[in-house]
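Protein: FMN-dependent oxidoreductase, nitrilotriacetate monooxygenase family
Species: Candidatus Protofrankia datiscae
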Amino acid sequence: MSKPRKQIILGAYLGGVNHHTVWSDPAAGSQIAFSSFQHLARTAERGRFDFFFLAEGLILRERLGLIFDQDIVGRPDSLPVLAALAAVTEHLGLVGTINATFNEPYELARQLASLDHLSGGRAGWNVVTSFDAFTGQNFRRGGFLHRDDRYVRAGEFLATARKLWDSWPADAVVADKNGGRFVRDDTVGAFSQHSEQFDISGHFNVPRSPQGRPGVLQAGVSPQGRDFAAGSADAIFSPYRHLPEAREFYQDIQARALRQGRPAGSVKLLPSASFVLGDTEAEAVERHREITRTQVSGRTAQILLETVWNRDLSGYDPDGPLPDVGPDPEAPLTIQGRARLAQDPHETVAGWRALAEANNYSLRELAIHVFSRTEFIGTPVQVAERIDSFVQNDGSDGFILGSHLTPTGLDEFVDRVVPLLQERGSLRTEYTGTTLRDNLGLPAPAPAPAAASAA
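Structure follows.
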């Protein structure tokens, strides 16, 4: 019996936080103007994408104590942007990255539930954590959270948010004979949470949302992160670009989810990806070379490697060999405000040296290779086939697609690749549901028992 064809999940990512966007392109637009967000979201919906995704930048980053001259300047808050997009889209999920370290459960649960109502059940939350005191200085409690406690807080935060969302039964609000509406009983919305991270109680004042709860996305590669994501997330960002390692990660996450009592297929895996199209493969390859050389200038390459070396590498030739010194993880951070990219910098650098030696990579060429996303390069037919093959072979359930060009870069994919995926039977031709969970093929969660919601 043949395996049923998987439907590809697609998210649209507006770039800006990292180096992938080419702002020097004459066609590049604003990362702040609503017209940019609107254009990308409407393009994604025209392509029958599942959701629109926003990353988060909470602080202007620094390098060696000075504002990082290659960072993006200006990053609007995710929730107002997503709320505005709810008014100009009908089916597209709206997912924002929001930090569980620097927010509080009641306020954030209320904001997300409100977005879910405003959008008709299309809200999603990418749960991220931080132990970064530099970013934390912007917030009331500062960088108080120890690295080992970040998943403790995130787990308690998410459990508390779900308790709040579940505190309203579906039939909590009823109408009287005069057309008024009232709450059925005084226990509706009651909650309390007394744990290591939170000590709160009260009544939640937003009714149960159209999809039950907002969808939850998460990223985790360490064993602790994988367990948290497999037990709590509806979708997980996968960092793996090549099919063998991607399939191994896919199988591991599904096995962890099953061990935690979740049904098969309840967690979707989604790597970030980019694409470059050409009328011929050679044209696409050459176009890709030009784009990546623009994305990763010599200076950008030095800075990207500094995030792992934790040294000033400005004196090294970008087109020469890798630095002849090792990383210095114990020194004060060279780059402030950016997540650490390596659990073990010495191990990472050793692997990079071996990679550079095997491929004769310069410093810049190594940076281009190791900091790229999953890339689909070729004619539209080739790109459609490669995306479909990756998903059908359980490398992932789909991709979150970004482009080097904001906000119009996705147009070419929607016009030239989406019809081919639809012809293959791997992508919807019309939306069949109304919520983010419908788009992702996930059932609405059952509300918690009334007695448990206030426990």
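Remarks: The two ends are 47 Å apart (CA to CA).
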